[in-house]
Amino acid sequence: MDVLLLSRLQFAAATMFHFLFVPLTLGLSVLVAIMETKYVKTGDEIYLKMTKFWGKLFLINFALGVVTGITLEFQFGTNWSRYSAYVGDIFGSLLAIEATVAFFLESSLIGLWIFGWNKISKKAHAICMWLVAVAGTLSGVWILIANGWMQHPVGYAIRNGRAELVDFAAVVFNKFAILEFFHTVSGAYVLSAFFVMGISAYHLLKKQHIEFFTKSFQMGLIFGLIFSIFIAVEGDMHGVHVTETQPAKLAAMEAHWETTTRAPLHLFAIPDEENERNIIEIGSIPGLLSFLGHHDFNAEVRGLKDFPKDERPPVFLTFVAFRTMVGIGTLLVILTVVGFFLRKRLVESPIYLKIMLFAIPLPYIAIEAGWIVAEVGRQPWIVYGLMKTSDAVSPVACTQVLFSLIGFILIYGLLGAVGFYLIAKNARKGPV
Amino acid sequence: MDLQAIWFFLWGLLWAVFFMTDGFDFGIGVLYPFLGKSDTDKRLMINSIGPLWDGNEVWLITAGGVTFAAFPTVYAVMFSSMYSALMLILFALILRGVAFEFRRKVDNDTWKKIWDICIFIGGLVPAVLFGVAFANIFQGIPIDGNGVNQGNLFSLLNPYGLLGGVLFLLLFLVHGALWIAIRTEGDLNERAGLAANKLWYWLAAAAVIFLVSSKFATKLYDNYIAHPALFLVILITVLALFATKFFILKKTWLKAWFASALTIVGSTFFGVIGLYPNLFPSSLDPAFSLTAQNASSSPLTLKIMLGVVVVFIPIVIGYQIWIYTIFSSKVTEEDLSYDEAY
Predict the structure, then answer these.
(1) Contact residues, chain A, for B296 at CB < 8 Å
(2) Is the pLDDT assigned to residue A158 strictly greater than 70?
(3) Domain shared by A163 and A183, yes or no
(4) Which residue is closest to A404 within chain B, CA to CA?
(5) Which positions in chain A touch B151 (Cβ < 8 Å)?
(6) With pLDDT > 90 as the criterion, what percentage of chain A qualifies?
């Protein structure tokens, strides 16, 4: 066990666990804000009940998202100090801006929302949740600008032995970051929609609180339908941009070894990294990879063999994760479209409701898989083409990292279990 | 003043504000098992900071973020060289945050007891370890020319470091007790006032010992001797400490709390001013020390970040003061009856 491997495992565990909670925070804050606005506008008590019920689940999830996020900002310093010193001029300022501009607002106002029911006016209280939602999204903007810079560094110059900022606007308006932002946020909205639909389905199956959960389901459905289609279109644009900026990642996503024109897409394959080939290829569609990467069936797509062995990402993991994400994404579009036709007679569609209940974990898996594609697919680089992950790690003792990793696993394991239990318990209880 | 010097003081200021705000949350966490005799007492205590602690904690994120943005080398060396201490702080903060939210979600005594322990740890560990960490920075850390710490967690626990831990803990305990006194009535209010009064003597003793031992353990006084006007900062801090006592005796809790806040900010600045221009001095060789000059970001980044901070920090302070004002009245039984309350 070396410090590098342990640090990578720790960061992977910490970010992936954090990202179990972030998407629901992003999406459910918007949905709860819409519910509360409807309550303020119509005065209809059912919307107040909805705000309270979904708000409660939101808050349990929110707490887990906040506490797991705090550690991340510091882990760049604790575990990736060489990275931090090398790119802090750019990356550090983006994190600092996120805290100052967005996270402050979100964290300050959430307290007001929880404790302010009888302290501020109804209208102010609803605005408060809107601001929480806006601030959360704004946090996402800055974090993804930071991640976008790691994926596709722009606006810098190497001076004084480090990357220094020369063009702030280029960093902020980095196309990679913008595409990544829309991809992540729409994914978060889809996840939240399925969360709301799934829990509503549970109660509709039991034929309880029918009006309440039909309304909730329909809100989730509109949200889910819009954004599951949006993310598919946006994902296509994102794919083209990855082909342009990170050709090695694209080749790994598709287990594409040889540089060819009219490159095929394999629906399924088992990559053999040792021998630089695929053991099995099933369902190969000629020209489709060229089309997805370049929107041209005859375009040339660079293969993995074009890159030195030590500059290729792990192929198997990237390939499988990408397929998982896209496969689930497609399924989610189908489910929301079916839901659209069944929206008026949900209670009479028990099979569909059952599917929707069991579909709750699917967007979670898709989002985690998406991050695996983004981060594992970028390897061996921590900043694509600029700095390798192996050069970024802190000069700390192996035992320290081992102990902190064990600490993370224990605490996060416990929190995960408790969080799941509390959300499930309160979801099952229904509105009060 | 040049950009780097401005950033040096902003850096100190953000840490000071973090200690001033989240400090009373930590203090309340430690006082929690001692002052919270009944479940209602306990709930009053955590609900007194319920709407505020989360916003307070962001001062830590901002102080850390600004360290990263303005002095990336310091950020890298500070957090990697104090790896274990920082991890312990982070774990404690994780447990504290969820404990507030989860404690009342299940009606079971064992469940509550577990989260009560987490609230206590979540106050104690950060309070002490931040003190230990900053006292060690004041004193110098054995970092070599590559910014690698030659010591470990246990070498941080030297006498001066531990003294710093005790000082911070006592500062936060008094600060926290005063906040409870402000926001509660009756028995709990009285006990909190008594605790603040008693703890003040311990705090005053720790402060005197810290000021004296700083003369021997650190080079902090060099700057003061070179610019005697700076002794005013120490004088103001000491006066604030006495004002705290004065207002405690008069039972004007809000004034006492403000005096205590000023004491905390002053104590932080006592060290920050003494450090200048060092942000992270090496105890092995002054040439290895990280300073405002040799560890800063590029002028462009410093300028952009200065713009961000000058515009947004006043806005943040504005809405945080507004929220504090909303929640400055006493926490009542009625407040506790709400479903959302902790």
Answers:
(1) none
(2) yes
(3) no
(4) B87
(5) none
(6) 78
